Amino acid sequence: MFYQRPTLSKFLIEHLRGAPSEQDLSALLVDVAAAVKTIAAVVAKGQLHFRGEAAPDRATVNVHGEVQKPLDVLTNEIVLRHCEWGGLVAGMVSEELDEPYPIPADHRRGRYLLVFDPLDGSSNIDVNVSVGSIFSVLRHDTEAPPGPRDYLQPGHRQIAAGYAIYGPTTMLVLTVGNGTHGFTLDREIGNFILTHPDLRIPSETSEFAINTSNERFWEPPVQRYVGECKEGRSGIRERDFNMRWIASMVAEVHRILMRGGVFMYPRDTKDPKKPGRLRLLYEANPMALLVEQAGGRGSTGRGPLLDVQPESIHQRIPVVLGSHEEVERIERYHREFEDGTDRPFVSPLFNERSLFRPEAL
Ligand code: F6P
Ligand code: MN
């Protein structure tokens, strides 16, 4: 029976018992969950949310005089409104805001920073494919209001991270540094119920996810890895691989947590100004922590994602994450490319012009 499974609140009480400021962190995560429930309801309404012909590009006013906002703006406001009032956060950073959001003067400031992407993969909304919200919680241990630099903490300093996926069911997948756990929204009773405790990613996999339309821009180690996967049983991997690309990071990471796999949005040469597509603070770091807490690995291809020192709040970063052994292999391919050991050895004594060419002997 559902009532015998822990709710999110019960889970948080049990898992945070004894942790510093446990009640505050629990309360914040409950606020985030309330925002997620609201977003789930809005997303599920789809086009019904907009009374006009199509979702507007900008805020419009409907026949009832109500302001209708595009979903990315609306979901951003939903998170801000649910989390600003409780005296739990000192400030927030959102993918939708250029600058950090200061807590309004009529609310108390707390000791946490909330960093989030309110609607990830939002291009999938129009085609009714799963989207999600991603969030990360950092500490802010001073009384002073946070400035942008206070958010620039490496991913291993996150004290909680998670995502919500709005698919056939709405799920919240969460870590407070004690494993990765999945909760399913029971819409009838309005609670998140622990349905996927202690998720574990198999260390090996035969499934990869990458946008292959970018293939010509990839670096050689990524070309090598994907090429070998595609060669399948007839190549050095000696087994066939499957490929998936949903173009929704939340859905991609969710699949990896459920059945393994590797996800890559690597560094490429498409736009030299961008070192990757995904954002470090509110996409890569929370996902890397969730994956690592489930026994997987999160990397830039060249080293652990969680060790990267952020330089700006909207910084982009290359992302390789998923099954441990596969991510380690991709890191090895990057190392071998950098030190030249992935190229066949050509001896200066035995090359084409050499006196020692077999036919010259
Ligand atoms: O927020 C970025 C994002 O939408 C991710 O959710 C997704 O993995 C990626 O971009 C999709 O990229 P592309 O448009 O190259 O397929
Ligand atoms: Mn996003």
TrEMBL record:
It is an enzyme of class 3 (hydrolase). It is found in: Cytoplasm. Substrate binds at D120, G121, S122, S123, N211. It comes from Dokdonella koreensis DS-123. It catalyses: beta-D-fructose 1,6-bisphosphate + H2O = beta-D-fructose 6-phosphate + phosphate. Its main location: cytoplasm. Pathway: Carbohydrate biosynthesis; Calvin cycle. This is Fructose-1,6-bisphosphatase class 1. Binds 2 magnesium ions per subunit. Its EC number is 3.1.3.11. Mg(2+) 1 binds at E95, D117, L119. Homotetramer. Mg(2+) 2 binds at D117, D120, E283. Keywords: Carbohydrate metabolism, Cytoplasm, Hydrolase, Magnesium, Metal-binding. Residues 7-197 form the Fructose-1-6-bisphosphatase class I N-terminal domain. Gene3D superfamilies: 3.40.190.80, Fructose-1,6-Bisphosphatase, subunit A, domain 1 (3.30.540.10). Belongs to the FBPase class 1 family. GO terms for molecular function: fructose 1,6-bisphosphate 1-phosphatase activity; magnesium ion binding. InterPro entries: FBPase_C_dom, FBPase_class-1, FBPase_N, FBPtase, Fructose_bisphosphatase_AS. Its cofactor is Mg(2+). GO terms for cellular component: cytosol. GO terms for biological process: fructose 1,6-bisphosphate metabolic process; fructose 6-phosphate metabolic process; fructose metabolic process; gluconeogenesis; sucrose biosynthetic process. CDD domains: FBPase (cd00354). PROSITE patterns: FBPASE (PS00124). Residues 201-334 form the Fructose-1-6-bisphosphatase class 1 C-terminal domain.
